[in-house]
Amino acid sequence: RAAVIYGRDRGGVRERADRLAKAVTANPDDPFDVAVLTEDEVGDGRLADELSAISMMGGRRLVRLRLIGERIGAERAAGAALTAHAAGELNPEAFFLIEAGALGKDSPLRKAAEAKGLDKAVAVIPAYEDEPGDVARLVREGLAADRVSLTPDALEKLVERLPKDRGVARQEIERLALFLGPGSGSQGDAAALAEFVGVEAEASLSE
Question: Which of 96, 86, 85, 82 is nearest to 37 (CA)?
């Protein structure tokens, strides 16, 4: 009935949540079957109302909550709604998907999600930051989709440079593919990328 995906890597959290949303409902962008809320919209019973609503088009209803900041009040409200929904008190056919940042063990939302007896109703999925090997695979797969590649030295340099956030990393990979020429079959080397990909924080292919 519900899933809580959390972690410091907000891009990784969003990517996993998007995949899960597509598995839950045929059209994650359908405003009739899907409600997307932020932490500013969880008060005054709005969250419970959305979780109680029935799908207008006959599909499975998805309620998606994105907790961007670190507001303890929003976490408490989300945790209370999660507990009620997991117990079947709202619309038991709806799916409640929560995206959050790093949740410590004292987080009221995490405590609610990991409460004893809820493991069959709530999936708790921590999204850990990618290791260098994961980043290298992400780069290779991303570039291969555009039929370009990097030499081993260039790949190592890029992996060292890319940020920990997967969403931002994917943007850099897309820029790199554009720089190399999509569909060209070209292979970038470390010398060609030296000006754009370095250890400096401001180094980027954006320009």
Answer: 96
